[in-house]
Amino acid sequence: MQDTSPSVPDFTQWPSFPFEGDLHVKQLDEPVLVEPPRRGEGNRECTACNAPDEAYIWVGERWRVRAMDRPTGLPMVLILESRSHLDLGDLPNLLAAELGVMTVRLERAIRSLDGVARVHVNRWGDGSAHLHMWFLARPYGRLQLRGTFLSLWDSILPPISEAQWRENLAMVAAWLAEFGGRPLAEPPRIQWQAPSSFNAASTGGATEEPEEEIASVIEAADEIPEAEEAEERATPEQAEHPDRASEPEQVGQRDRAGTPERPEVPQQAAAPEQVEQPQRAETP
Ligand SMILES: [Zn+2]
């Protein structure tokens, strides 16, 4: 029907593929010999380590959950982060086991929201060295959003209402807090108002707001502008925040300073049932 070049793969014909028309496969760049450092690697600042608890919707001793800075097209988009500056493959057994527990818990919390059919869990990690897992909710009934293009659709769908968004965030935060930690239902920073100024056509890039670290669900979008990003990081907007002064335990915050990891923290402080698994996990 459409005379796309023969090299365009079949998935461009799938109902879930968000685009139509005449498509061409991009020319691939030559591979680089040495990849540039991600955020939180080499001499690059770590956004996660620098972010105060107030930027999150829920915080625990070893994990934090954050939302985007404004309503998303999908009914819920959240990021689970370890406090410690570690990447997925570097998690010690305790944290690895807890990651499983937190993943299940968060999935269930998001799936319990009205209008959510499924929760996709993703980890890319190409932009930041600090472990962060994405949780993307697929709206119920939207069969066309099934599968791997869900993250693209988030930028295409009109954002949900701010009221709904905040309510959803508060519900998830409260759900997590049942197991410990602190709900900070108020989402990150800046009061985002006038959601009506968004329209269906807004594609991530259409945001007139000052650039925040996470503007889109599409991870590449938060990593590709490598050069600008690096500069922005130099002036972290968290500066105005009254910095977790009241928090006795900012375990992760200073990790990146030098000490590679310190997953010691009192074990059963946050969620008692998380503590069993590690033993079993490490078969001698
Ligand atoms: Zn970090």
TrEMBL record:
InterPro entries: HIT-like_sf (IPR036265). Residues 232-264 have a biased composition (Basic and acidic residues). Residues 265-284 have a biased composition (Low complexity). This is Diadenosine tetraphosphate hydrolase. Residues 220-231 have a biased composition (Acidic residues). Residues 220-284 are annotated as: Disordered.
